[in-house]
Amino acid sequence: MALIPEWRKAWRMTSVQIAVLIAAVNAAAIGWSAFQGLVNPIVFASVNLGLGVAVAVARVIPQSKLREPPDQQ
């Protein structure tokens, strides 16, 4: 396994940001017992599915956020 050349800028990637959002939502669901009665499991699964697909789509779209702006002289 090799790291991508821009691995230090990974936090800028939309796919990484969405993945962090997925982790946060799932951590909230585990840690917050009131959440379980508040949200329908089908809605929760659908949101997870949608965010998972968004990660895959965001990963294949070119992201200009990773490129440094050209030096202005």
Summarize the structure.
The protein is mainly alpha-helical and 73 residues long.
Describe this structure in words.
- By secondary structure, this protein is mostly helical.
- The protein has one domain (10-61).
- It contains three helices and no strands.
- It is elongated.
- The mean pLDDT is 80.
Write the layout of secondary structure elements.
Elements: H1 14-31, H2 33-38, H3 41-60
Helix pairs in contact: 1-3
- What's the N-to-C terminus distance? 38 Å
Largest sheet: none
- Number of separate helices: 3
How many β-strands, per DSSP? Answer: 0
Quote the average pLDDT.
Answer: 80
Runs in which pLDDT lies below 50 for 5 or more consecutive residues are none
Taken from the alpha-carbon principal axes, the silhouette is: elongated
Element-level helix/strand string: HHH
Keywords summarizing the entry:
single chain, 73 residues, mainly alpha, 3 helices, elongated
